[in-house]
Amino acid sequence: MFPDSLRVVTIDAPDDLDAATAAIVLANIEDPVVRWIFDTPLRMMTYATQLFRVLVTHAFDSAALQRTDDGLAVACWRPPGVHHDDGEIAAILHEGCAPEKLEAFGGMAAALERYEPKGPFWYLSALGVDPIGQNRGRGALLLQARLAQCDAAHLPAYLWSSNERNVPFYERHGFEVQTRLRVSTCPPMIPMVRHAR
Question: Which residues form the N-acetyltransferase domain (predicted)?
């Protein structure tokens, strides 16, 4: 487990965005869907880094980017009622993904939206722990911090898991699998909802 002194902090300085992006990229080095999209080392390090930087920036702009104070774990959230322009993400995917995969992934993304909760909800766009800090409770600490806020406001939370191995972790925190979506050769994408409490 992590030291008792480890805390969750909201990232409020632009200078911290590079470190947050790096932690999430490292956490996703073996993610099945990310590696399917960015299927060479160069594509992974170039375009996945750009993609996660956009997610980090969106969360930062919404005052919803959190990390453990050792910087090894990062959570990117989108608060209720906040919407971001996905144009940057579409451009990164268009440039970094093979055209046949891009079409399949577009179909998957459209299907995932159907599982979003009705009304306001918190959306977890990315949660990552640097591999050197994994399996020590950092991800759970980050998740619990935001879910306590969800519970206080009686709001649901929503995410897409792109890694089957992470599903039990989210289930332990009250998320429920909605379905397992497959399109073409893309590994499963798993929408999960934690209902309001």
Answer: 50-197
